[in-house]
Amino acid sequence: MRKILKIMSVCISLLVLLMMGLTVYGNIVLPDKLYITNEEICLGKIFTADIDSEFFSVQTANTSNTAETEITATVKLANSIPVKTVAVEQKERSYVIPGGELVGIKLKTDGVLIVGTETFESDKGSVSPAEDAGIKVGDVLLSVNQTNITDNNSLTQAIADSDGSPMEMTLMRDNQQFTTTLQPQKSVETNQYKGGLWVRDCVCGIGTLTYTDISTGSFATLGHGIYDSDTREIVPSTSGVLLSANLCGITKGKSGCAGELSGSFGNTEYGNLQLNCDNGVYGYITVLASNEQAVPVAFASEVHTGDAQIITTVNGEKKYYDIKIEKTDPFSTNNKSMIIKITDEELINTTGGIIQGMSGSPIIQDGMLAGAVTHVFLNNPQKGYAIFAQTMIDTAQTILNTDELNSAA
């Protein structure tokens, strides 16, 4: 009898510790704001939330008062233990056309990106005007002598025409604008004035379209940002074009080596790029890549482990392939919110798993757009990370807000 009581005591103690641990966990990771659609609170399976029933009747009578009245809910563990009080906001569910098409991305830098500096021989010996001016790799050159610089050629010509006169340069570093003076020097080799700068004015690549939002005219692709190969920094850009692309070849992925979809740009311009950030590349659509039916976008809390599919183009046309979602973090807002595994034998035989160029491939679960592929595990190309579709929708909203502000101004 004592043994039974001891076992029961240990079990109860472990259960209490587990409940306490989950309560602390929930208090830390649960967001301070929950979203509802109609009368459904979008929350995970472990936690529930109690909300004032009058909220829904108030919303039905006068939705314009939503921002004026702060609504709160009590989040509970196992529908009984209070965890924290959070704000509640009604959120409309988005509907989008899922992508899967291979696309070409031509990203124009804001100004020109400094990707390197050099030392060269002049009549004064070895010189590096760029380094002397304090210019560093990763800086963005915006203007020279108050004239905007938009491409490599305009910078080269401005320096060549300087006749050795000091040049006032306006640059951006770590989101801070500053000016410096560059003193061009004449190269012994070319007999022309040089600044010792290596710059880039655009970045091109291949990816996969994630979705098109007809209601806003926006699109999203990649699910992660485009980084410069030299500076290892995200390419600063608010312009560019989204193009059709043709598949030219496939390099299969294997452990320790990422594969790749090779492609060429097509003649169709799908849209204009407006934003390159950690959560993807976004812009406005001008030509629809697909006229398929729109599907609902899943809230992060609705995405669960289990079977799903990705849509991607590896055989000339987009197709659905089976995957499993192995892990989710419903409160994550970055581009590594899910871990997925390719289970489709056809796709594994064709690509080895997830390869470069498949970034942005939409993930469909329970008839909803759940997310997009973002990264591959180098030690196991059948696995990788993904971003929630709702995170991409929220990020795209920053474009709309910016444009609305610009229009108002």
Structural descriptors:
409 residues; alpha+beta; Thrombin, subunit H; Pdz3 Domain; 3 domains; 6-stranded antiparallel beta barrel; elongated
Identify the CATH class of the largest domain: Mainly Beta
Number of helices: 6
CATH-assigned homologous superfamily of the largest domain: Trypsin-like serine proteases
CATH architecture grouping of the largest domain: Beta Barrel
Order of strands, widest sheet: 7-16-17-20-19-18
What topology emerges from the helices and strands here?
Elements: H1 2-29, E1 33-37, E2 40-41, E3 47-51, H2 54-61, E4 71-77, E5 81-90, E6 95-98, E7 102-117, E8 120-122, E9 125-127, H3 129-132, E10 140-144, E11 147-148, H4 152-160, E12 167-173, E13 176-182, E14 185-186, E15 193-194, E16 197-213, E17 218-221, E18 239-251, E19 260-277, E20 280-285, E21 295-296, E22 306-313, E23 318-328, E24 338-342, H5 345-351, E25 362-365, E26 368-377, E27 380-388, H6 389-408
Parallel strand pairs: 1-5
Antiparallel strand pairs: 1-2, 3-4, 4-5, 6-16, 6-21, 7-10, 7-16, 7-18, 8-9, 10-11, 10-12, 12-13, 14-15, 16-17, 17-20, 18-19, 19-20, 22-23, 22-25, 23-24, 24-27, 25-26, 26-27
